[in-house]
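Much of what follows relies on a compact textual record of a protein's fold. A complete example follows; check for yourself that the lines match position by position.
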Amino acid sequence: MTTYNSELLQLLSERGYVHQVTDAVGLDALAVRQAVPGYIGFDATAPSLHVGSLVQIMMLRRLQQTGHKPIVVMGGATTRIGDPTGRDESRKMLSEEDISRNIASIRTVFERLLTFGDGRTDAVMVDNFDWLGDIGYIEMLRKVGTHFTINRMLAFDSVKLRLDREQPMTFLEFNYMILQGYDFRHLAQEMGVRLQMGGSDQWGNIVNGMELGRRMDGTELFGLTTPLLTTADGGKMGKTASGAVWLNEEQLPAYDFWQYWRNTDDRDVGRFLKLFTDLPLDEIARLEALEGSEINAAKVVLADEVTKLVRGEEAAASARATAEQTFAGGGKGEDLPTLPVPPEGIRIGAALTELGFTQSNKEAKRKIAEGAVKLEEETVSDPGYLIELAEGTEARLSLGKKRHAILRGS
């Protein structure tokens, strides 16, 4: 592992955040000399970011922890276009009202993880619509367009992927990389930003912004990316069979969020503790070394620590208490997801699908046939089983050992 002089790069390196750096020596020296303003951009396509974005948020937290200034750039403008990176189709258009609501909702998570204010290292959140919204088309073409070649833009993986698959890419989306590059240049000019960070899929966009700043203003800028984050089994971080693992409480209950981390693969525990918690590295090494059933204690620590950071102490304690009631005591647990059962009842397969335990009734039937579904600890083998509950009564529905919900008569 490379040793750095700056606390920033040393911390990022030790905890596994660093994949590529445009000029590690130059950035390291800059971080020793001054507080470096650095940013990451987030588009507001939903009311919440998901776990896949958490590593980026934690990088901004590390930036602040080591005496530098984190800048959160919300893509009020770029959300209107859509980043084609990793996508096979155009993004759904959102209204201005939807985007504003999404940004306000997303901010609540950042406020838990970063300290905002007017101080030298206090975090700032800005919206790129503030500078991109008023720039004229001709002005953009003359000022910025001359610094981008079609040859290079066509070579970007995000563009090549769509073209190779013969998937349509609109001219609107094709312009995304120009706007993101302009963001970097604008932030450098107006806020003294010297560093852009992001996932490894953003490397090309980051380099574009650096080159634009150099060509237009002669400014030396830096870029740093994280590794592509996948789980040990090759799955995409933050994706489960039942959908995305959202950071906001309104999109995903605290118990489900806590349980996601508790279900971490044994092989990922140490890596996730480094990336997503503030635990000291020596404590992480101790937890990572646990073997057999003892590794479950480390998973509980991981779930507790991440939930505390993202949802707060109370949510973490409540989620853990629900897990203990559910698994140890056989209780129902207050934080388990709840599904109202109408007076006419509900088929067990439909209940599994409505809860998000299965993606379809067909999958639900398969799980039932495998003997993985229980109602009040009794295995249900009939896919057409009708659950009927009197008003106010409850029953626990389980899929395997880790997915549980409360059915409540209504």
